[in-house]
Amino acid sequence: MAFRTDDISINTIIGAGSAVSGNLSINGFVRIDGDIDGNLTTDGNIIVGEKARIRGNLKAKSVVVGGIVLGDINADESVKILTNSIVVGDVITRRIQLDEKSVLNGHCIAIKDEPGFSEKSSVYFQSKAIREKVSFS
Length: 137
Fold this sequence. Notes:
The chain is α/β, with parallel strands linked by helices. The chain has one helix at residues 114-136, and strands at residues 10-14, 19-21, 24-26, 29-32, 35-37, 40-42, 45-48, 53-55, 58-65, 68-70, 73-81, 86-88, 91-98, 103-105, 108-110. The strands form two sheets. Strands 1, 3, 4, 6, 7, 9, 11, 13 and 15 form a nine-stranded parallel sheet that branches. A six-stranded parallel sheet has the order 2-5-8-10-12-14, with no helix packed on it. The relative contact order is 0.11.
């Protein structure tokens, strides 16, 4: 398997002390060490540093969480939740790793095979959309 160039080099950094409000759509590998209040979508990987705080959903190829994420994580390949990090939200991925003393408060779908993953994630997103529609009524 060949690596894309953005698989090994960071394209975007949101540094410590930075605060972003609003949804972000970024190409490539992203590292967050600051605060984000909004959703983040990328076609690459996301690293959430240990002092980072995110209030929003993450969508990426893979996600490594070292800080706090208050929102859902949708990662096509993998999610890794490191020691002393917190995720309050649902996780949808093919592989998940939770280190000791990490916190995951939410639903988790982690299915390695493609047909099972596609089916279960589709059902999940449909039911979530219905729940959100009903709660606004």
